[in-house]
Amino acid sequence: MREDDVFEYPDPATYRVRIWTPPVIENYSWAVDEYEVTDVQDVRDALAWAENEAAGRPMEFFVKWFETQITSKFEFISTPQMTKLFGLAPKED
């Protein structure tokens, strides 16, 4: 990969964090809280926030990016996408 092939967005990255909480009643579903983390310097700060918030609970960690497309009328549209960096949702029994 050439250096010219690398692009950095000028805006700070946005991260999505899903934190899972086990059911309090047997045979019920896990609960999930979702957060968008934006006010951080870099991914290390976002990850530190997420790990602190999760406090040992299962967690999924994503980065948000935009896919730009050109419509048939030559208009640019940006569609938000999420790429999971790590983590797993808990398995339901």
UniProtKB/TrEMBL annotation:
This is Uncharacterized protein.
